[in-house]
Design goal:
disordered N terminus; 10-stranded mixed beta sheet; 36% helix; two-stranded antiparallel ribbon; 18% strand; 12 strands; 2 domains; metal-binding; single chain; alpha/beta
């Protein structure tokens, strides 16, 4: 059992939004409903609308009395996400949405439709405090953590979209704006709501949920002790501490080896293979020797419980960082595989619509 940890990061600039239905436990919902003078079964009714029918407006919940709809709206359903704009690409199969929150903060989500699934990439913070220099969100800084309900409502909105299209949302990746494990408690609450069956959640399989991190080693161990089966994705980006101290500044606190040890702990506890995310950057981290070292370190630390997800960098406007050429990418993949570690290149969706995290929000600002 890992020791309890308290992680402290740069303070968000803004406060949290008003409490929403999805911020409360089932017991707290019943208490709030009865405080409104309503019978406790109304809490279950509302949950079935929100999680089962993807309705966020009590005025549409017609099996509730009109007076109850008004009081529940006032007390438990503050407006969370207001659409600013959406952009489509890939022949309409990819939709990037920009949302304005209750306090004016901006966040992004991306819905990607495939023949066999629909994946939503969601944000866990408005902005990010990790300061990775090649990331638009990291360079913008952290506005604030998202509430559990602001995370969950991204999923509800996408699930409603997919239902209207006659399909369903099947996969969730916490790879949007922010560092999920720096907003630990709310992210875990959101994961449980995403994966519990209705009326307590959306019923998406934990095995279809991926939580990404830049490598907060104590929080990775803490997540392992939650005994969930979500996939862990670690944004490593280089196998050596010297470069990683620059590319992923949190590496100054948690070294590559500490991160890989925590990842192994997670793999052993969850039974899931860990995904290593590696953004390939021209002349920075794409050398042959780094590919060889990456494969060796991963094979030693994780054995068969690892997979490398190579990401062609989606450069931000005006950035000095650029994607590696195709032949360099192919050689990097070959060398990692030669060390006995599976390695594939991520499907890059939406590059022409500023699909890299933070680009749409930066344009709006």
């Amino acid at each position: 059992m890992a020791e309890p940890v308290t992680l402290q990061f740069s303070a968000p600039k803004r406060g949290m939004p008003p409490t929403h239905f999805a911020d409360l436990t089932p017991e707290e919902r019943i208490a709030r409903i009865t405080d409104l003078g309503l019978p406790k079964f109304r809490a279950d009714q509302v949950a079935r609308h929100y999680y089962g029918r993807f309705e966020a407006d009590p005025s549409t919940m017609t099996d509730l009395p009109v007076a109850a709809r008004e009081s529940i709206t006032r007390e438990l359903f503050p407006t969370l996400l207001s659409p600013v704009r959406s952009i489509e690409t890939d022949d309409g199969s990819t939709t990037k949405s920009l949302w304005r929150l209750n306090d004016g903060t901006l966040l992004e989500s991306v819905l990607m439709r495939y023949p066999d699934r629909a994946t939503l990439c969601i944000s866990s913070q408005a902005g990010c405090g990790m300061a990775c220099p090649f990331c638009a969100t990291g360079q913008a800084g952290l506005d604030r953590n998202l509430s559990a309900s602001e995370i969950v409502d991204q999923v509800r909105a996408a699930a409603a979209t997919m239902e209207a299209e006659g399909s369903r949302l099947s996969n969730i990746v916490f790879m949007g704006m922010g560092e999920p494990l720096a907003n630990y408690k709310r992210v875990v609450s959101a994961v449980r709501q995403i994966t519990q069956p209705s009326p307590q959640g959306f019923g998406i399989s934990q095995r279809n949920v991926t939580v990404s991190t830049v490598g907060l080693a104590p929080a990775i161990r803490k997540l392992a002790d939650e005994n969930m089966s979500v996939r862990l994705a670690v944004s490593l980006h280089t196998p050596d501490d010297e470069l990683r101290d620059t590319l992923v500044p949190i590496n100054n606190r948690f070294t590559v080896q500490e991160v890989l040890d925590a990842a192994r702990y997670y793999a052993d506890k969850s039974g899931r293979r860990v995904s290593i995310e590696y953004a390939l950057i021209r002349d920075i981290n794409d050398q042959d020797w780094r590919a060889d070292l990456l494969g060796k370190k991963l094979h030693k630390a994780l054995g068969p419980k690892v997979h490398v997800n190579l990401i062609p960098l989606n450069p931000t406007p005006g950035s000095k960082w650029d994607a590696s050429p195709k032949e360099r990418q192919d050689e990097f993949v070959r060398r990692v595989i030669a060390q006995g570690v599976p390695c594939t290149v991520r499907d890059t969706r939406g590059q022409e619509i500023a699909a890299a995290c933070g680009q749409l929000a930066a344009e709006e600002k």
